[in-house]
Amino acid sequence: MKKSEIVSCSRRTDIPAFRMEWVVNKIKDGYVDVVNPFNKNQITRVSLSSENVKCWVWWSKNFAEWIKYYIRYKDLFRNFKGHYFQFTINSPSELEPNLNISLQERIEQLNWLVKEFGSLAVNYRFDPIIFYRKSNSKRIKNNLDKFEFIISEVSKMGIDEVIFSFATMYSKVKRRMHARGYKLIDPSLKKKKQIIDKLLNICNKFNIKMKACCQPDLLIIPGIEQSHCIDAYKIEKIIEENIKKLKDTGQRDSCGCYKSKDIGGYDGIFQCKHNCSYCYANPTRE
Predict the structure, then answer these.
(1) How many other CB atoms are found less than 10 A from the CB of residue 281?
(2) With 0-12 CB in 10 A as exposed, 13-18 as middle and 19+ as buried, what is 143?
(3) Is there a cis peptide before residue 128, judged by omega within 30 degrees of 0?
(4) Strand partners for 224
(5) What is the C-alpha separation between 204 and 63, in angstroms, rounded?
């Protein structure tokens, strides 16, 4: 039985939006069997006992189901010392076709989480910033039109940073975008700096820091810091207890996260129903 002080749920798919009944059942069981997504024959049994798990890290674009289950099973969730949230809220976009919930509702969810758990327990993410065009058009589009509005709302909640990245040009992402009639555009570093300078002006107006996720080339830009999405130092403050601080070597070299155990998957029951066109995790075939 593998034990981890931090359980990640999940980088690989949006479990809080779609699989909360599964999570609750696994917590009741006290363990979960996790299949290695790159080696289906390797299965690890992970303890979900509150004696072993000190903090859950929840990743989602829509926490409606998570909030509903938390209210229903509050005693179960409160057995754990900490809950830590990675909440992605981008501008509404044609590239997120199945995210059928309004921007305002998601901002209200974010506010609910902050009121229930405190601003320290919530990481706000605008991720990714994406530039693209339709295959039959030369007009370049992006998803930044609501950036200032979202930042202004986030700042009112006491959140003082935004984690961001530019869309990564993985081959499967380019293929999916092409199949859906889009062409992904990767701005030059010079262009990215110009974009970030404008975003920094907005963030500075609302006293919010910009932290780059897995994009070390952006750290040369004044005002941009390295993100630590799973931040062991924050978690220590949340749970008021010391934990091990080990770099997560299972992530990309430029990832600033501390070690956790992810219990999600990419396909089967875990295939994400958001089906975002730019997603690098969803294995959907076109």
Answers:
(1) 21
(2) buried
(3) yes
(4) 210
(5) 28
Distance of CA 215 to the CA centre of its chain: 15
- Enumerate the domain spans of the chain: 6-270
d(CA 33, CA 25): 12
Rg (CA), the chain: 19
Residue with tokens 């609501």: 146
How many Å apart are CA 79 and CA 104, to the nearest integer?
Answer: 31
The DSSP bridge pattern shows strands 141-142 and 131-134 to be antiparallel
Name residue, tokens 């932290």. 211
CA 237 centroid distance within chain = 20
What is the per-residue pLDDT for 145? 98
- Tokens 């810091």 belong to which residue? 225
The residue written with tokens 């909030």 in the block is 67
- What confidence tens digit (pLDDT) does each residue in 184-218 have? 999 999 999 999 999 999 999 999 999 999 999 99
Task: Read off the pLDDT of residues 224-259 as tens digits, 9 standing for 90 and up.
Answer: 999 999 999 999 999 999 999 888 887 888 898 999
